[in-house]
Queue: 2 jobs
Job 1
Amino acid sequence: MKKTLFLFTSLLISQLSISQNALDFDGTNDVVQTTYLGVTGSANRTFEAWIFISSSAPASNLCIMDYGVNAVGARNTFAITGTRGLSFLSGGTNANIGTGTNLVPVNQWAHVAFVLNNGTGYLYINGVQAGTGNLSNVNTPTTGTDLRIGDRVPGGNIRFKGAIDEVRVWDVARTQTEIASTMNTEFCAAPTTLKAYYKFNQGTAGGTNTAVTTATDDAGTNNGTLSGFALTGTTSNWVTGMNILPVTINSTFPITACGSYTMPNGTVITTAGTYFDTVGSSASCDSLDSYVITLAPATIKNVVADSGCATYTTPLGKMITTSGTYYDTVSTTGNCDTVIQYDIVVSGAVDDSVYRTGGRIDSWDSFANHQWVRCDSNFAPIVGETNRFIITTLPGDYAVIVSRGTCVDTSDCVNINPASISESVLNNSFEVFPNPASNLVTIKNLENITITGFTIIDVSGKIVLDETNNSNNVINVEGLENGVYFLQVKTTTGIAVMKFVKN
């Protein structure tokens, strides 16, 4: 039943409750067999336990505990009925009692108790009497099966499915007041009339507990042996149990931290309050250290809204590659460090590469915005030239400003001179698109010049494709390897040469 971290903000220490472990039974073969003989004969007795039954549990009897012999009046089967009532079964006339239906809640922890008091039986649910009856024929022999938890004595099987916690067997008939006043209390030292007491504080809730196969008897030496349990995972294992009280506070530590505090067990605390960490457990109660934590918020010194192209680096050297909110911590001598917040927008980088074919200059970045400029006129923008390419017959030096978001770059200047233009003036009559291309390229004939064929040459000068009589001006380049190629457009007046990229 132990758990390492607990938070309380308004409870007194005398009311401190902790979430401890329990045992989960799978309803198939899980059982705890103890060495406790049990209260025998017709002597007064009291059974208590906390139980958790899921709404998906089978609609059949679920045995909490039992001992004795499978004979009339000789066993002590304390169970939940299939209709979710509570029962005590010893067999035969004046040996069985039960409650009404649907009194035991499901999907939550419930305390159940049975009392035999001078031949009369009483059943309690959450400290309230729910049933009574004549049990004058109950007479448990000193032979038979010792106390077992999760199944009845031999002669039948009514396996328990769900979790059981805080099993107690007394050799007195406890009153309703006594049951209600201590059902939420874990006894640090067992009273003399408490003869068997199983807190189920062993193991790690939901962990791997294959070596933890003993349930300690905290009232004596009649420990229980676990049988059939998987002892790993959230079922058929040690699990989180019922919140009970009290515990022992070992030490109290006042803590002042900035923003957060990491407990000794590794838990990060981000809200001020009182927290508890388990020191250890034994046959008595768990011992806790108390941490009273005060959190001073980190100070936001400044908020910087900025942008970067591909990356952004803060003044303290933090490189940011994705848009978002980031922080730099500036160490100070005060209680808390100072934090600078950066709200950064990072844009993708641009490609400022260009290539020229005759009097045409193309930008390689087909997804950016473009503005062509004259380098020889102090980089003055050319009105209307915002396409990915520019075609000109005027001599001069040209460049393009490429931008995407906050990323802006300018290409190298490319010289256009009259000689190169006159040699390649035919190039201005055609366009090739898409460029780059994956499957097909289309030649746009701007002046309706008669085309006689097409030739594609790779960068080594090798002819890789030669076509004639291509009336639709579309060329399939799917079979070409990725790379740069030169397309010759053959016409009746000459040959135009254009560069394109296959990808």
Job 2
Amino acid sequence: MSQELLKALKAGPVRGPELARALGLSRAGLWKRIQALRRRGYRIEASRAGYRLLQAPELSAEELQALLPQRLILYKELAGSTNDLAHQLAQKGAPGGSLVVADAQSHGRGRMGRAWVSPPGVNLYMSMLLRPALSPQEAQLLTLAVALATAQAIKGHTGLQVALRWPNDLLVGRKKLGGVLLEMRTEPDRLLYVVAGIGVNVNARKTDFPPSLRPLATSLRLELGRQVPRAALAARIAKEVEAWTGLLQHKGPQPVLKACRALSAVLGQRVLVRSQGRVFEGIAEDIDPLGRLLLRESSGRLLRFFSADVQRLSA
């Protein structure tokens, strides 16, 4: 009903009696729905000519559903964690491609149990449910595919070139723009489902970051000097994730690996790799067909990492 009402208001002005009749509502029922939309940030003009939508919030359930009409979408103004909500949808049998988006999170998380700072009104916090026909051994490739898809969506939407820091960070220069966190449920020989959590700093100002993160983080607004509508970006990311994970399933790892290598911020660079309490140094040489980082130490020894923190040392 909200979608139909908004569609009519966008095409307005439309007189109240006509609008109520078209939607099967009483005049009082129409007024209640218009007031509810206003409380959620929609600017709706009421004049002698009728009702007309003047401005919509840049992130809302209605805007997301209009951009992704065939997709199951759950939108929350405040979520504990979008990943947790996506797990709940998965356990209820929701289809692959289902999306959870929040304006803010109280318990957002990144890799290795780190907190993900999630203030309201500025950034994008979303989780997408995937049901890929892949084995658990191929799961690392999904992390690369989702990070790649997010980088490509940002470039397509804004023109901004985003680099990838293996395995899951999105960078502009040396500053972090966002990241992905994949969580999955498996059986010995197959993935039951995957939740792909995606966080992008969209319209954050420097003061929106904690002081400790300000030298390390950036946002689309800081890089571009303008605001970026979050709903449209979320929709583009969802479509890119679907495209790249589909390509991974049907064409194998090489297209994803080729694109990730081209956008890599670490390959060919001297790096520190922290893994399981140990620190290694060498040249980040390549990403192998399972998505592992290959590190060549000065001794010539080649190490493979499924999961690690990587810090670039060279200029």
